[in-house]
């Protein structure tokens, strides 16, 4: 990141180690919850394989991101890498197209993470509606979703106001409350003998599955939805500017989170299908863990499960809230968003970005469609990953970046791996998710995704004009010298002394 961009906004503080970064990212395994019953609708028990492959895909992609995090330690995660790599140094024209590409990648990433807040606020409202009859008599499920979002966003804003370190402490607490019981729910059915492997081996793929173009496009769309959940642990690299030792902390946080994700995603989906069968999952597509808990622990277990899941949802909202705000801060630092979004308080927290993120998600909650929001977010995520992987290839090949110090370096030839997965995201997964959306919920989510992404264009042009005005302000601040020598001397005396 250039000195100009660094001085444009307040600096983030280096205050966390890899364990704290991991604690914040531990919300990512919980991203399986919205899709736990969705993917089996299309692929039956093969959903287990999809989750495993998607996490492995994350290892390939995130290895490239880990290298970029240590090569560009002042850039903030995927948004910062793409912006830094694609911009043209010392560009003399009005609009740098490379900078626009990098900024669009960051905006796509912001839009991919942002709806997590709305999605899980809607789920919290739904669970509360089913858990407490008093609330169900007083509020509709929609009203509880709005209220849940307002309370959760306000509470997390207060916590994060005091800096990322306190957000990590909250992550530790919520991880203990939610992740451990989630793992218990994944492992207990095996220990108690409730998992019937015949439910998996006998229903591996739907009976009508064929490898024609229709089903291949569905498969690409499923991978797009799955990677939105299973590859999201790159969020550990988002906090690159805030790690005490990025060279060591970033890879440790990334790979530790990836290993946790692999086992949790595969085990949870296997347990759910093994206990309920594919038909049982289809009967409970939104909350299949509840009947699993009833089968293993009884009625009391189902109540505990809902409470645990609500705590888990708060954790993933915290992860997304921090990631989204850092993405906006990074875009502002690079001049790809108005400077106001880069403002930080005395604790180094980008509070304006936090406020905008919360307000945007309250609008999304008001749409009332969880499926449409999730599908739109997947469109943003495929765009962000594709462009970021292409940025890695450019960073390895371009003379301006090829000789930079890389404290962590991916294996030789990794630029070819990055190019392969970049093309997998763009265009294959993007086409697939648009096709899948058209079959599942019409064109609402596709239009929502593309409209939000397109809004970045006018915002970016405004940001460029703002930057040009800021660059001319120092010259404009010097008093214009009059023609009369006495007036000139008077004007010069008014200039501030000292440096």
Automatic annotation (TrEMBL):
Record's bilayer topology term: Multi-pass membrane protein
Keyword Phosphoprotein belongs to the record: no
Localization, UniProt: Cell membrane
UniProt superkingdom: Bacteria
Classification via InterPro entries: AA/rel_permease1, APC_superfamily
Keyword flag Cell membrane: yes
Keyword entries, A-Z: Cell membrane, Membrane, Transmembrane, Transmembrane helix
Spans traversing the lipid bilayer: 39-60, 107-130, 142-162, 169-193, 213-233, 253-276, 296-323, 344-364, 370-393, 414-435, 441-462
A Pfam cross-reference name: AA_permease_2
Name recorded for this polypeptide: APC family permease
Species, as recorded: Arthrobacter methylotrophus
């Amino acid at each position: 990141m250039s000195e100009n961009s660094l001085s444009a906004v307040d600096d983030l503080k280096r205050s966390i180690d890899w364990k704290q970064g991991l604690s914040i990212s531990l919300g990512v395994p919980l991203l399986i919850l919205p899709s736990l019953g969705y993917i089996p609708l299309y692929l039956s028990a093969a959903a287990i394989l999809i989750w495993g492959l998607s996490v492995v895909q994350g290892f390939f992609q995130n290895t490239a991101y880990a290298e970029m995090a240590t090569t560009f330690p002042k850039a903030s995660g995927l948004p910062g890498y793409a912006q830094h790599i694609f911009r043209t140094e010392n560009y003399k024209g009005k609009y740098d197209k490379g900078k626009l590409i990098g900024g669009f990648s960051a905006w796509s990433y912001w839009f991919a993470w942002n709806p997590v807040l709305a999605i899980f606020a809607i789920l919290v409202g739904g669970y509360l509606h089913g858990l407490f009859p008093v609330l169900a008599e007083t509020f509709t499920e929609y009203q509880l979703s709005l209220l849940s979002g307002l309370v959760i966003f306000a509470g997390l804003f207060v916590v994060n106001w005091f800096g990322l370190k306190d957000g990590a402490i909250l992550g530790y607490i919520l991880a203990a409350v939610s992740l451990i019981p989630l793992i218990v729910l994944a492992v207990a059915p095996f220990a108690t003998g409730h998992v019937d492997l015949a439910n998996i081996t006998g229903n591996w793929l739907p009976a009508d599955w064929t490898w024609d173009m229709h089903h291949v496009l569905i498969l690409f769309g499923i991978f797009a939805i799955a990677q939105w959940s299973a590859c999201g642990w790159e969020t550990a690299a988002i906090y690159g500017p805030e790690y005490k030792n990025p060279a060591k902390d970033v890879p440790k946080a990334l790979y530790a989170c990836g290993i946790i994700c692999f086992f949790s995603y595969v085990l949870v989906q296997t347990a759910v299908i093994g206990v309920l069968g594919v038909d049982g999952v289809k009967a409970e597509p939104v909350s299949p863990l509840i009947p699993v808990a009833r089968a293993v622990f009884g009625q009391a277990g189902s109540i505990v499960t809902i409470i645990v899941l609500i705590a888990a949802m708060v954790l993933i909202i915290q992860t997304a809230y921090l990631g989204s705000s850092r993405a906006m801060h990074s875009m502002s630092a690079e001049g790809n968003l108005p400077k106001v979004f880069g403002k930080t308080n005395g604790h180094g927290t980008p509070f304006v970005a936090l406020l905008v993120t919360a307000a945007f998600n309250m609008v999304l909650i008001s749409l009332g469609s969880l499926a449409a929001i999730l599908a739109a977010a997947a469109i943003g995520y495929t765009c962000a990953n594709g462009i970021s992987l292409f940025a890695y290839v450019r960073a390895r090949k371009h003379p301006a970046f090829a000789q930079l110090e890389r404290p962590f370096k991916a294996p030789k030839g990794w630029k070819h791996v990055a190019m392969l997965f970049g093309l997998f995201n763009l265009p294959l997964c993007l086409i697939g998710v648009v096709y899948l959306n058209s079959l599942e919920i019409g064109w609402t989510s596709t239009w929502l995704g593309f409209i939000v992404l397109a809004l970045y264009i006018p915002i970016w042009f405004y940001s460029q004009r703002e930057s040009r005005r800021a660059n001319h302000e120092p010259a404009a601040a010097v008093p214009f010298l009059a023609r009369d020598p006495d007036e000139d001397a008077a004007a010069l005396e008014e200039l501030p002394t000292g440096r």
